[in-house]
Amino acid sequence: MKILNKKKRNFKKKRIIYPNIIFNTLDNNYLNKEEKIKPLFANNEISTTKYTRYNFIFKNLFEQFKKYTNIYFVIVSVITLIPEVSPLDPSTTILPLGLIVGLTAIKEAYEDIKRYKADKSSNYKEYLIYQSPQSTPPLLSSSRVPLPQPQENNGETEWKFKSIKSKNLKVGDIIKINSNQSIPADIVLLSSSSISDGVCFVETSELDGESNLKIFKSCNETHSNFKNGISLDLNESQQQIKLKGNIQCELPNNNLYKFKGILNLENDSNQDNLEIITTTISLSEKQLLLRGSTLRNTEFIYGIVVYCGRDTKLSLNQKSPPSKYSTVEKMISKSVIGIFIFKMILVIISTIVGTLVTEHTTNKSWYLWINEEPDSIGLVIVKTFFAYFAYLSFLVPMSLLITLEIVKVSQGGFMQFDLLMSYKEKQYRKQLLQYEENQNNNNNNNNNNNNNNNNNNNNNNNNNNNNNNNYDNNGDLELQKQYPKSISSTSISTSISKDNIKAELEKENGDNIVHKYMTVKNSNLNDELALVKYIFSDKTGTLTENKMIFKKCSIGGKIYSSPNQSQLLNEIKNKSSMELEEIVSEGGETIDQKFVKEFLINMTTCHSAVSELDQDGIVIYQSPSPDEISLLNCSKLNQFIFKERNNGEIKIQILKKEKTFKLLTSMDFTSERRRMSVILKDIETNKIYLYSKGADSVMMPRLKQENNNASFINNLNYNNQLIIEKTNQHIKEFSNEGLRTLILAMKEIEIDQFNQWFEKYNSILNSIDSREEQIEELNNQLETDLTLIGCTAIEDKLQDGVPETIEFLLNSNIKVWIITGDKQETAINIGYSCKLLSHSNQLFIINSKSRDDCEQQLNNIINNLNEFENNNNNNNNNSSNNITNNNNSNNNNSNNYSLVIDGESLIFIFLEFESKFLSIAKKCHSVICCRVTPIQKSLIVKMVKKDTKEVCLSIGDGANDVSMIQEANIGIGIFGNEGSQASRASDYSLLRFRHLSRLITIHGRYSMIRNAACIRYSFYKNMTFFFIQFLFSIHSGWSSQTLFDDAIITTFNTVITAVPPYFMALFEKDVNERVLEMNPHLFLEVQNGKQFQYLTIARSVLGGLYQSVVMYFGLYLLFLDDNILNQYGKIGGLAIMGSYCASFSVISILLQAALDIKYWNFIVHIGIWGSILLYIIIALITNSMLPSMPQSYQIFNLSLSLLQFYLMVIIMIFISLIPTFTSKYIKQQFYPSQSQLLQENYILNKRKRRN
Questions:
Q1: Torsion angle, CA of 615/620/626/632, rounded to 10 degrees?
Q2: How far apart are CA 822 and CA 844, in angstroms?
Q3: CA distances in angstroms from 172 to 136, 259, 306, 707, 1231, listed in the order given
Q4: Which of 19, 130, 1066, 1233 is the most exposed place for a label (fewest CB within 10 A)?
Q5: Residue 379 burial (CB < 10 Å; 0-12/13-18/19+)?
Q6: Which segments within 601-695 are labelled E, that is strand?
Q7: Measuring CA to CA, how many Å separate 107 from each of 402, 587, 824, 1015, 1059?
Q8: C-alpha distances in Å from residue 1098, one per residue of 341, 1225, 1228
Q9: Which tens digits make up the pLDDT trace of 638-670?
Q10: Element of type H or E holding 729
């Protein structure tokens, strides 16, 4: 491979402009330059691992010790290594810290090994590249290939195609890829096994998630060279490649859908004169096969590598999503800082008091300094400070962060394998319904038996059975009486009817399921789900199925309501006495027939779909756009069938006759153009036509407004202006029905006009800079003065459960915004269909064309809102005097208003009127933004998030939703038909929109409840246990002497009390799922963030301080007057007091967890009672080991033999926990929350049904 260097310049500068990739030897002098060029190109080895085998230890330790908590405990560990300073054994901090660091390292290594295995499977795949049989590959690449004749080696022909590993591919390699092989690098397609046109089919699901095959086509010049140079009948050892030239292309970039390049082919036309003729060919994204895609339905292809490894578009798109941290995580960090400050206050107090005691008492006690000199005052201060710094270090919970990290991953696993958010949802719900029916049948059978025995009980039994049935289907009857408005019939669990379940089960019985479960990609945000206040949702593919059904169309100003029932075909046949074969030809047709015919031809030719034959020989279509598939299926039902596209031709079948068009050029659809056009040449008539389709907003200005006849009308009289007016009216009608519309138009182009245009087009294609802008400007010249043919109306059905889910979210005090590119009428209709809008609510609409108009509309709405609020306040004041049971809080102001705004108005709002707009939007319970561009989606989310400071969630399914998803606090992707870019960029990926309510209100709520309980308990237990150490300083002369055994201190966080907080954060439930599903208002209890606040942490800390004081001074008072332990005169000392205090402290702390837990199961029982047993075992083992001699040897065994020990444990536990138990009892009995009442009623009714 060589880089042409026509001017003397640095190769890197040349590379910055454009690389020239050459795949034939032009001059041997370039060999010396390959070493200089080599660093410019990446190799093809892919590595997504974070570590290597050589740097894992060092890099992992560096990553871990960037955390402040780890640095803190390293400092403490260093202090404990100084025996003159530290009162603690080094093992008390080094072992727990080592355990935490080790577990984290194991987790990182496990995840990195999985990445390494994935990389290895990709890097070691083998591919065939063309290499010279005479020499080794060049230094930079094997693209410098001489073209020798096949040579014999011991009677055998040496192969020219050799197998190499993917990681060894280089830029410039000519590669052969066989069917179903993945593309290992970004390559330019040179030829394919399709002899006629060099077309291949590629699946790009790994890139964009689209399973539909895409068509790519090689240049005719390279394909013909390969056809001439390579015989498809010869094996690879006999094939020769005859190509000379170079490729100039753009620098590597991350745009998957754009590529600009030039192929310069050299032809030795006159070998005598050595004349070289260079042909310049434009390259685009249609010739670029991207790494990560897979070759399908094509035997093989040839290509040349242009981007390798990290330069490929796939690698450049694999960027880490923005870092997101939950509110709880931020509060933990500040809480830890608060605990640290509290600790430092204690350290300073201890240092001051300890220094004074040393100066006035210790230094004057001569018996303490035999053969030693007392320390100086400065040394005393230093020693005391660092001693207490290490002594009180465990007030900061060491294991909290690692516990939370493991817990959140476990919670994510629960979410991912929740059957009610998986592909088995309908089957699981069906099983639940069958179970309920079986229970009802059993009840009926019991009732029938009772009828035979006692007719008098018949009515009672039937009534009871009916009550049970009503409860099973609609929820708790008693709860409905108490909270009739809180229990909605639109429960999540019943949002899908039995009929829908059976229908969808039959429908999906044979489908290949790609995504089976939801995925969690950022478990750090699990508890953040419980704080969601705003949801921003895309419409198409998110709320709807993205499975388009052709419902209606308007052709020539006339509506056809049943196009899928051959209505268009009947229009052609019924109004003509000609045979069907004669209808195909022009002439003798009515205006309606001509319009319908051109309408169907437009749908059949203006698209990017690929046709295939299924097993029954029926034509089926694949396309990136579901709209195109619906259009082609409709035209096929009306016997206008797209057959194939090859060799620059489009073949269709009109009725029973085939017709061929030559495809001159195609103007593809983009989100900016919002239209697609093709220029075709009718081979029979040599006429050139442009067929176009697109959104009405871009197509209507391009229509011809005059009444002069279109070319296909053949001078029949028709009113063009009237057709446009009728079509506009029909578009509004279709939009009001929630249908998506497309305008279809055409024009005939004169041959001379097209030739002039095409000449400019080709000249632009040969350039790289500003190619798209110039081509778009040139396309606009032809896409004008179009003749309107008609418009299509396509239905995109709502997903099952969407209306119920949105209603549930609104009742949960979550404001829902729909952000869509659809027309206003369509968006409003969808809003009513999905229950986002209500006819009982006031609807405000903002449509402005200028800045002043926008400001005036905003002011008018603000004035109206003020008037409504004043009237409501007056009405409420008047009614409160007469009606006491009015429940004025039934509907807040935010529940009375809805807002609709278009994208054009948002332009002015972003510039000047954000505050006014948000003052309106905050009072609306729902907002619909229509005609919105992808960039406006992210700006809307950013604006609301920045102003309200509330948690915002975005959900979408397409690439145009990625910016919105990444901008929000929480991003949700839907696995849909528009690709997987959204799901890949998201924090959570769902299968259906209806799963969102369960994710937020159930999993989000439980995660908040569990994590908050875990965090509170972690702060509490450390404060309770280790603050006793500080209190002991009062009686130890502030000498930093420890009360507890070092083994107990070491294992307290990492072993003894490690399981309860983990199980609390894994299994805790305050309310049963079914109660939550029936009562959306319960989400308010967690949405306001009261479950985890600084006040709740302070209460936990204060509770720990209280128990510490009670335990220590209670122990002191019990031992104050009587220190004799048994009949042998054994007296207590430091070891026995530490054993007593540690025992009832640990047991009290574990029983506190038992009081906090609301949901008990077998595993939780094992965790609580097993931890108590584990403490006893650890204490027995450690005090029986030799290192415990002589101070604490067999001390715990002695304690267990004393009745005094058991009495003291019982008394101290009672005194410590009675305030907690009392406060919980009073709160639940006299000040219960709604969730507590509903949960109690649920349990009572469940017991009644069992009995």
A1: -160
A2: 18
A3: 15, 17, 6, 57, 76
A4: 1233
A5: exposed
A6: 610-613, 619-622, 640-646, 649-654, 657-667, 675-682, 688-694
A7: 11, 76, 50, 22, 19
A8: 14, 21, 21
A9: 989 998 887 778 889 988 888 999 988 888 887
A10: helix 720-736
Which element (helix H / strand E) includes 59? helix 56-64
- Measured distance CA(1079)–CA(1238) in Å, rounded: 9
Burial level of 797, CB count in 10 A (0-12/13-18/19+)? middle
Q: What is residue 437's predicted lDDT score, i.e. its pLDDT?
A: 60
Q: Which two tokens stand for residue 198?
A: 């060099």
Tokens describing residue 1053: 């966080």
- Amino acid identity, residue 741? T
CB atoms within 10 A of CB 89: 18
Six-digit token string for 1130: 């054994």
**Total count of residues recorded for the chain:** 1251
Backbone angles phi, psi at 667, to 5 degrees: -110, 100
877 C-beta neighbours (distance < 10 Å), count = 10
Strand partners, 692: 677, 745
Instruction: State pLDDT tens for residues 1105-1141.
Output: 999 999 999 888 877 766 656 555 566 678 888 888 8
**What is the spatial distance between Cα 183 and Cα 296, in angstroms, rounded to a whole number?**
11
Residue appearing with tokens 């209505």? 567
Q: Which residues in 193-293 belong to E strands, given as ranges?
A: 199-203, 214-217, 245-249, 261-270, 275-283, 288-289
What span, in angstroms and rounded, lies between the C-alpha atoms of 780 and 698?
Answer: 11
Confidence of residue 405 (pLDDT cuts 50, 70, 90): confident
Question: Which pTM was predicted?
Answer: 0.74
Per DSSP, the three-state class of 483 is coil
Angle ∠(804,826,806) on CA atoms, nearest 5: 15
- Quick one: angle between helices 1162-1182 and 1134-1156, nearest 10? 170
Tokens of 388: 């207490």
Containing H/E element for 1099?
helix 1094-1120
pLDDT digits (tens, 9 = 90+) for 525-582: 899 999 999 999 988 778 888 778 888 999 988 999 888 888 888 888 765 434 434 4
Cβ–Cβ under 8 Å, residues 447 and 462: yes
- Residue 542 CA to residue 799 CA, distance in Å, equals 8
Q: Which of 185, 138, 447 is nearest to 290 (CA)?
A: 185
Spell out the alpha helix ranges (H) of 1121-1202: 1134-1156, 1162-1182, 1195-1200
- 311/320 Cα distance (integer angstroms): 16
pLDDT digits (tens, 9 = 90+) for 1019-1031: 999 999 999 989 9
Are 954 and 968 in contact, with CB atoms under 8 Å apart?
A: yes
